[in-house]
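Researcher: I'd like a structural prediction for the single chain below. Treat it as a standalone chain; there are no partners to consider.
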Amino acid sequence: MPISIRLNDVVEALDNATEEHSHYLNKRTGEIVLLTSEELKAAEDDELISKYPDWQRESNLKAREVLSDSEHFSQVPDQFDIHEYQIMENFCRAFEDRQVGDELLRLMKGSGAFRRFKNAINEMDVDKAWYQFKQRALEKIAIEWLEENEIPYSRSDAIDVSDASM
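Model: Treating it as a single chain, here is the predicted structure.
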């Protein structure tokens, strides 16, 4: 019987996606493996593991295992698959108070949009609504990815955001 992946584990990996590292799902164990770009690069080299310092060997071995076993490891969507800017725009457009939504949209234009948005949601005291909205959006992305890859998952640990209002 295949293992059921915890949906929140995938959502957490999506929420922590950056350019500097990647998350991989071990479909046998349900473990999410975090690998830096340096570890992935080292895994692609033909260097002997013994050439690396002790503290790097374990992570390099894990990276080699991940890269060589695509049957059991799947890369979790990364920041380029998530489109946080689009999620922010959707939040602004869906916001009940149009004045607040329009102001947030205005602040998202140009350089520094993410920083201005984060500052504004805190100042306007709508940060809780934002994080609930973002959680739902990431959960949707996670579910689509899991289903597309035919990976069984459980929602038992999913955060209930059904009563989240904006």
